[in-house]
Amino acid sequence: MDWINALVQGILLGGLYALFAAGLSLIFGVMRLVNIAHGDLIVLAAFLGLTVTTATGMHPLLALIVVVPLMAALGYALQRGLLNQTLGDDILPPLLVTFGLSVILQNGLLEIYSADPQKLNAGGLETASVPVAGLSLGVLPLLTFAIAVLVIWGLQWTFYHTPLGRSFRAVSDNQDIAQLMGINRRHVFGLAMALALGVTAIAGILLGIRTSFDPSIGGGRLIFGFEAVIIGGLGNLWGTLAGGVILGVAQTIGAKIDPGWQILAGHIVFLLILAVRPNGLFPRISA
Amino acid sequence: MPDTILELHGLDAHYGDFQALYGIDLHVTEGEVLAIIGSNGAGKTTMMRSISGLLSNRRDQIRYRGGAIGSLRADEVALKGIALVPEGRQLFPSLSVEENLLIGGQVGRQGHWDLKTLYDLFPILEERRNVPSTSLSGGQQQMVAIGRALMSNPDLILFDEISLGLAPVIIKDIYAALPGIISQGMSAVIVEQDISKALSVSSRVYCLQEGRVSLEGASDTVSREEISRAYFGID
């Protein structure tokens, strides 16, 4: 039963990792941009949630109605004002610029919020649990997983059933020809980043409710996000969810064997999959 | 005398240090079909890329309906009513046949062409509308590329080498459909390697040679000798 419990907890944890990864996957798919600052943007969203909840007394989940639009607006401005200028045939400039952005974000957060670990208080949601078939499942992990499925379904639907999604795919296929269709790629990239950071906001708030956070933890979230994207296969959002679940299960099973192995087990499974299937399990885009 | 819809004034174009076009002067009048001929590397495609905004030029080197559009981006040019059917078709592989057509219509210009009128023109596309665009034959892909451009209801449509890589029987079909397309009040510029095809559908012809206009004339009066001199640059 303990093993089944570990397995189920891992699957649910995978929902959070899928949320970390969905934004990364989306912007890589649309504009081939690898955003090194993604983890720090997740942490930024958590801190924004902290500010909103302490200033207004709102429940952290309710604070999403403020933080999601705020992060989306930041994403659009960041893309139009900075990142669009770095995109081109060379993939190095956007890597360097987002790396710089990561450093700036970390130090900015340190300056404003200090290095003290913080936590979003969700009034008992963190510890609530429901008994399911002999297992005790946390309400928060269940909620997180449900939100992850909903977010990925929503992104998938946007991609395949709306004019905006059509523009995303067209720009991803061929930027020049997409321009000929009257699509301003800079604007479309801005919208993609807005959508990605909107998802990041959800991930940041859920992270902040689940565990304590401080300005330095962005890098770790970035790695988990990357691993979920690569395991699932580039450009496939449902694959990203599967990647998150595999990573989550590897970590909880690893922790079950030896508590010190939690993170390591995740990395090992990632490396094994990378060695056997370099394009991930369900690739849409050849790298 | 019909109005001029498009004018090029001393159009230069560069790829880095390489100059591809040298002071091209050219005009298209309302409702006419203009043919551009010339050998490989003469600058035909570069000219199409310049007009459609994929290459940026000096503002006043390209004028459309009296306005300077030389420095506009391709999406801005598309909104003004110029559509390009690019060389090599260049469909979006991630999009289905119908989505490729719909994205052409996303420009939002109203007019004769929509999914229905287009499927009347190319019925085979309606049959295959939900398949990936890459699974079509070359000729069908060319229909999608033409349809995608038409969906934006342009006033001026540019065809870049639409017969390239297609079987002769398919080329015949595509050219048979052209009069029906252009009779909707559109002006057209056709870039074509096949000189007799180009002359048969156009009213006037320009020949490019090494980035310069080497011949300009009415399609039914230019002689074979004039063309071969302009085409190959031999006296």
TrEMBL record, chain A:
One of its GO terms (cellular component) is plasma membrane. InterPro entries: ABC_transp_permease, BCAA_transport_permease. The chain crosses the membrane at residues 6-29, 41-71, 91-110, 130-155, 188-209, 221-247, 259-276. It is found in: Cell membrane. Keywords: Amino-acid transport, Cell membrane, Membrane, Transmembrane, Transmembrane helix, Transport. Belongs to the binding-protein-dependent transport system permease family. LivHM subfamily. PANTHER family: AMINO ACID ABC TRANSPORTER PERMEASE PROTEIN (PTHR11795:SF445), BRANCHED-CHAIN AMINO ACID TRANSPORT SYSTEM PERMEASE PROTEIN LIVH (PTHR11795). This is Amino acid/amide ABC transporter membrane protein 1, HAAT family. The lineage of its organism: Bacteria, Pseudomonadati, Pseudomonadota, Alphaproteobacteria, Rhodobacterales.
Automatic annotation (TrEMBL), chain B:
Gene3D superfamilies: P-loop containing nucleotide triphosphate hydrolases. One of its GO terms (biological process) is L-amino acid transport. PROSITE patterns: ABC_TRANSPORTER_1 (PS00211), ABC_TRANSPORTER_2 (PS50893). This is Amino acid/amide ABC transporter ATP-binding protein 2, HAAT family. InterPro entries: AAA+_ATPase (IPR003593), ABC_transporter-like_ATP-bd (IPR003439), ABC_transporter-like_CS (IPR017871), BCAA_Transport_ATP-bd_LivF (IPR052156), P-loop_NTPase (IPR027417). CDD domains: ABC_TM1139_LivF_branched (cd03224). Belongs to the ABC transporter superfamily. SMART domains: AAA (SM00382). The keyword Amino-acid biosynthesis does not apply. Residues 6-235 form the ABC transporter domain. GO terms for molecular function: ATP binding; ATP hydrolysis activity; branched-chain amino acid transmembrane transporter activity. Keywords: Amino-acid transport, ATP-binding, Nucleotide-binding, Transport.
